[in-house]
Every structure is written in structure tokens, then in C-alpha cells.
Recover the amino acids of this structure.
């Protein structure tokens, strides 16, 4: 058994892939999850501790039981549209949950923390490539709650020596190339899985949110990154901290923007089937374009994305979509 790493949200989409990458790198992932959106069946590479971040005692109990070397914090509410309808829940759950976790981590004497942040902290920046130097100006409650947690980490870092790596994700896509894990949300709101459900006839059509954005074809541009590449960066980030390097923030994306229409085209190529599409209105809170500059992760962490070509990501998601998925 390798050294323990507490993985909040370890039963979720990205957290479960992170557990696999950690196990492969010789660590023991402890999945801490309330199973509100995660799946017990996705916890395959270490134990599941069923707890809730809004209950500080359950967080402290998990840290005391497993004495992890580091904490990786994935658990959060993460839907832009929902955060615009119900900002209070986003601020309460994400920010209180992180505060409990960060303070309990410091109290337990753990000094290594890796945080899942988001490109939504940058807001809408007129199509500029978003680097770590870009000013953060979130336009939705989801992005706002994540930026608040980044600030919290900087303060706990300065005052309590909590060394941390902040990763800002762009649009995470794809599934475990070996087919052991994949994306499964209930309800699903993300473009690629919804599109593949429409291809399979599990829903009547995909609604494209808005076609009047200031982009080449009028639909939003997003930067898609493969979940396996993303979690590889987390193992590099963990080793960065274990090597005693300073706190740092890294954007994680492929550096290429694809419009919603281009994603649909790529899916036609991969699945050889049509995507039934309905043109709909804009979704509140959506930025026109979110494209990453990820040079820092490439140069400093030595991150080497391997599967983040759009067709590869859709292909892996398509393979997963044809499997039975996790049972409730
Ligand atoms: N999108 C869409 N129809 C859908 C879901 C998403 O047109 O049913 C668009 C959405 O407006 C955004 C992009 O697809 O421009 C990616 O959205 P998703 O929810 O997957 O990720 P987000 O960018 O919100 O993190």
C-alpha cells in the first residue's frame, strides 16, 4: 500500500479518474464523497469514505483515520447554468465545504493541497487566450465561488504554510481509455455526453445554446481537454509539492478552441451517425470563448497531454456511452 491521498469528489467524473492515476503512480487514493453526484461504483482503486464537506466533523474524521500525505479537492457543485439559478447554494456548498476542508487539513498538520479550479474564474475576455496572468473576473456564481476558494488557499498558504497547487480546468471530456471509468451525471448537462445521448436516441435532440455569439460560427468556443491528461497533471502537481516546490497555479487545456458546431461535426465523424439538433437561446452565464494558454503546465510541470485531440476525446466518450455505466 502506498501513501494515502485524500481525494474529495473521488466518486465523481474527474476525481475517479484521479484515483486511478494516483493508484498507478503508487499512492493509495481515499475517495471522500457524499455520493450526491458521484457513484460508489466509480470508486475502484482505494477505499470510499462517505462524508460531507459541509460537516467539518466528517472531514476531520477522514483526515484522522487516513492521515494523508496530501489532499486533492475535486468535490464541488460545478454547473454554470444551475449556479445562475441558485447562487446561494453554490456559495454555501462550495465555499463552506472548502473552508471546512482547508481548515481541517491545516489543523491535521497536512501541508500539501491540490485544488480543482476553473477557467470560469476568468469570465468573458473577448476571445483572448487565457493564461495564469489573465485578470480573473468571473461572470457566474460557479466561477465566483471557485475564485473565492483560490483566495482562501492563498491566505492559508501565507499564514499556515499550506502549500498548494491550483489547477484551472477548461472543458474536461473523454473517458478512461481502458473503459473502466467515464462521465455520468444525473441529470446530464454537458455538451459531449448530451450530444452522444442524442446520437443514441436516448433524447430527442441536442439543443445548441445560442448562435449569435461573437465567434466565427456564432456558437460558443470551448477548449476541451481529456480527463486522463488532466489527472496526469495532478500527479505531476502532487510530486511538485512533495519535492518542496512553491505554491503555483496552472491552467489546463489543449490551447485550441472548438465551437459547439465543430464538436457536433467531430461527433458525426467519430460515430458515423447524425446528431439531431435544435437551435436554442443562449444559456445565462456562458462566456463566448474560453481558450487556454497552458504553456506553464507544459514547461514547468512537464505535462504532456496525449489524448486531447477532439476526435480522440469524443471517441473515448463514445466507447463509454455504449457501456452500461454505474448503477445507482
Ligand atoms: N452547450 C449546448 N447545449 C447543451 C449543453 C452545452 O450548446 O445542451 C454548450 C454550452 O453553451 C457551452 C458548451 O456547450 O458553450 C460547453 O458546455 P458544457 O455545459 O459542456 O460545459 P461548460 O462550458 O459550461 O463548462
Amino acid at each position: 500500500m502506498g501513501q494515502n491521498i485524500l481525494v474529495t469528489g473521488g466518486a465523481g467524473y474527474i476525481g475517479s479518474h484521479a484515483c486511478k492515476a494516483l493508484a498507478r503512480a503508487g499512492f493509495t487514493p481515499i475517495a471522500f464523497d457524499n455520493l450526491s453526484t458521484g457513484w460508489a461504483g466509480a470508486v475502484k482503486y482505494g477505499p470510499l469514505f462517505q462524508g460531507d464537506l459541509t460537516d467539518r466533523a466528517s472531514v476531520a474524521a477522514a483526515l484522522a483515520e487516513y492521515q494523508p500525505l496530501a489532499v486533492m479537492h475535486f468535490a464541488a457543485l460545478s454547473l454554470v447554468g444551475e449556479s445562475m439559478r441558485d447562487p446561494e447554494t453554490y456559495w454555501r456548498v462550495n465555499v463552506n465545504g472548502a473552508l471546512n476542508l482547508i481548515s481541517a487539513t491545516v489543523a491535521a498538520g497536512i501541508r500539501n493541497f491540490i485544488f480543482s479550479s476553473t477557467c470560469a474564474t476568468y469570465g468573458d475576455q473577448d476571445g483572448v487566450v487565457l493564461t495564469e496572468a489573465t485578470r480573473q473576473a468571473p461572470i457566474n456564481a460557479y466561477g465566483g465561488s471557485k475564485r473565492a476558494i483560490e483566495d482562501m488557499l492563498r491566505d492559508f498558504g501565507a499564514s499556515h504554510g499550506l502549500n498548494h497547487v491550483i489547477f484551472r480546468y477548461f472543458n474536461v471530456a473523454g473517458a478512461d481509455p481502458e473503459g473502466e471509468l467515464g462521465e455520468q451525471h444525473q441529470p446530464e448537462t454537458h455538451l459531449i455526453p448530451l450530444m452522444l445521448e442524442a446520437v443514441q436516441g436516448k433524447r430527442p435532440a441536442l439543443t445548441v445554446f445560442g448562435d449569435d455569439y461573437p465567434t466565427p460560427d456564432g456558437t460558443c468556443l470551448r477548449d476541451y481537454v481529456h480527463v486522463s491528461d488532466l489527472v496526469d497533471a495532478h500527479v505531476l502537481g502532487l510530486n511538485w509539492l512533495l519535492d518542496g516546490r512553491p505554491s503555483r497555479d496552472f491552467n489546463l487545456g489543449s490551447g485550441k478552441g472548438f465551437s459547439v458546431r465543430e464538436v457536433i461535426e467531430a461527433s458525426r465523424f467519430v460515430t458515423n451517425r447524425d446528431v439531431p439538433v435544435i437551435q436554442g437561446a443562449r444559456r445565462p452565464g456562458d462566456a463566448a470563448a474560453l481558450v487556454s494558454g497552458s504553456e506553464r503546465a507544459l514547461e514547468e510541470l512537464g505535462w504532456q497531454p496525449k489524448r486531447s485531440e477532439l476526435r480522440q476525446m469524443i471517441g473515448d466518450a463514445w466507447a463509454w456511452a455504449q457501456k452500461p455505466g454505474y448503477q445507482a
